[in-house]
């Protein structure tokens, strides 16, 4: 794995390139039951919700190569414990929570190393909104 300069923002495509098929080997070893998927969190800006990018590798006979297909799904994270970069396992609910959320977080497989006190993006937004309201009240 090539280590490069520190990036300002985490992006899932960058993570895919750096890990060189980590999820592919993990998924090959474990045949996942009932449509469960493994992916990484790419968005945690909403409370109790995460966006997960799940990779599928399919062998295409015409080109005799394995191609990666990325599916992005919304998942319900009840305790808001996941943050951007975490590798998680999600399972389908069988029904929808809202217009898009159809999966639920079943397990966190790997936590991305970060500061202990780093807040989630949804918590940052709430803090910004609170500071803006307090500033308007003072004026």
Automatic annotation (TrEMBL):
InterPro entries named in the record:
NA-bd_OB-fold (IPR012340), Ribosomal_uS17 (IPR000266)
Q: Which UniProt keywords apply?
A: Ribonucleoprotein, Ribosomal protein
> For the region Disordered, what residue ranges are annotated?
115-139
Query: Which Gene Ontology cellular component annotation is one that this UniProt entry carries?
Result: ribosome
| Protein's UniProt keywords contain Transmembrane | no
Tell me the Pfam families matching this sequence.
Ribosomal_S17 (PF00366)
User: Does the keyword field hold Oxidoreductase?
Assistant: no
Signal peptide annotation: none
Start-end of Polar residues biased regions: 128-139
**Compositional bias per record (Basic and acidic residues), positions renumbered to this chain:** 115-126
Its family?
A: Belongs to the universal ribosomal protein uS17 family.
- The name of this protein is 30S ribosomal protein S17
């Amino acid at each position: 794995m090539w280590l490069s300069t520190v990036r300002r923002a985490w992006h899932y495509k960058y993570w895919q390139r750096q890990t060189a098929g980590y999820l592919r080997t993990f998924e090959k070893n474990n045949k996942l039951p009932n449509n469960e998927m493994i992916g990484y969190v790419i968005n945690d800006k909403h409370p109790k919700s995460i966006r997960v990018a799940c990779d599928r590798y399919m062998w295409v006979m015409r080109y005799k190569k394995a191609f990666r297909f990325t599916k992005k799904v919304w998942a319900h994270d009840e305790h808001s414990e996941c943050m951007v970069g975490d590798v998680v396992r999600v399972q389908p609910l069988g029904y929808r929570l809202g217009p898009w959320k159809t999966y639920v977080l079943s397990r966190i497989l790997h936590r991305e190393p970060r500061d202990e006190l780093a807040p989630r993006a949804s918590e940052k937004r709430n803090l910004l909104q609170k500071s803006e309201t307090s500033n308007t009240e003072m004026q």
